[in-house]
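Each field is set out underneath.
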Amino acid sequence: MRKKITAILAAILVTGLLAGCSGKNADPIASSASSEAPKNVTITALFMKQAGYSEDAIKEATDAFIKENPNIKVETTFVPYEVLEQKTLVANGGYDVILVDAPWTAKYVKANLIKEVTDKVSTADRDDIFAGAISAMQYEDKLYGMPWLNDVKYLFYNKEMLKQAGINAPPKTWDELIADCKILKEKKIVDFPIVWSWKQAEALAVDYALIAGSFGGKFVEDGKPVVNDPSNIEALKFMQQSLTDGLSNPGSPEYLEEDVRGVFSSGKAAFALNWTYMFGMANDPKESKIVGNVGIAQVPGTAKAASATINGGMGLSIAQSSKNPDEAWKYIQYLSAKDFQKKHAKDALPIWKSLFADADVIATNPELVNLSKTQYEYLINRPQVPWYGELSKQMQVAVQVALLGRSSPEDALNKLQTKALDMSK
C-alpha cells in the first residue's frame, strides 16, 4: 500500500512539473513580456495658440507628463484657431491627439477622424463634468473625446470709465449697453465704447450666434436650417447699427479675440465681449494699462432672453489613425485631470463641478467663479450638425457683408438660408 501511494505521489509530481514547463505561467515569452518595460513611443498633439490655456502651461504640463512617463515622448504643435480645423483635416494621420471645438465633433465623427471613448470615462466623472463640456464632445449619445477647455464669453467693462460717465452698474440688456455707449461717447470718455471680434473668421460666427441667441434666435431646427429667422435678422440689425452709429470700434470687422484684448487692455474701450482668459491678462501689469479697473458681468440680453453665452468648450480626442491610442489617451487624461485644471483655473475655469467649491480655485478669481455659476445657465451651442463648417464659413461672409453696409440684414440672411438648405441635403 505504501508503495502504491509513493508511486501515485511521484506520478502527480512529474505531471505537475510537465504541466509547469508547458503551461502559460512558464511560457518564457509571456513571462518576459509581462516584466519588460513599456515600449518607447512618440505621440504628436495638435493645439491652438490663442485663448484658453497658454502654450507655456501646456508645454509645462507636457514636460511633467514625460517625466512621469519616460517611455512616452510628446511632440506638440500650436496653430492659430483659424487654421486648426483645416490642419486637422489635411494632416492625414499626422497627429495622435487633436483639439476639437464643440461644433466640429459631428463632422469629425462622420469623417471617421476621431475614436469613440464612451467606455473610457466613468459615470462618476461624467456626473462631475459640466453638461456643456460633455456635450461638446458628444454625437448621437456617444463620447468622442475628453472635455478639456471649459469656456464661455462674458461682458468685460472698464470700471473707471463707467464711473466717470456716472454709470453705476454694467448693462443687463443690449438696449442699456447702447444707452451707456452713447453717454460715454457724448462725454468724450472714449471714442468707440465697445469693441468686438468680428473678423471674417469663427470669432464672428461665435459672436453672432451669441447675440442672435440673446434675441431669441436659432439657426437650426429639427436638423433643418432656419438662419433667416426674424430674431436672427433683428440681432444682425443691432450689430450693424452699432457700427453705423459709431458706438462699436470701426476696426471690429478686422479684429479677432486677441485684438479685442489689446484694445480693451490699452484703455481704448469701455466694453468688450471675450473669453475667460482676458480677465487675467487685462489685470496683468505686463499686458495691460487698466489693471484694477477690469469688471466682468453677464452677457446682456433682451426681453426674449435674459442673456446668452456661447459654448466655447473644446475637448481632446484620439485620432482614428493613431498608432498609439493607449498612450494618447493617457496624455489626454493627464491634461484634463483636476490637478492641471485647478492649477490653471485662472486661465480657464475647470470642466469639473467639484472644483468650483475648491478654495484655491475660488481664490484665483472669486468674482469670475461666482459669475460663471449664473452665466452657465444661459449657455447655447453653435449648430451641432455635420455641415456646420460650411455653414459657419458662409455665415461669416453674409454677416460681414451686412456689417459693412453692402447688404441689408434681411437680404444677407435670406441668401444664406438658400445656401444652408443645399448644405443640409
The CA atoms of residues 44 and 95 lie 5 Å apart.
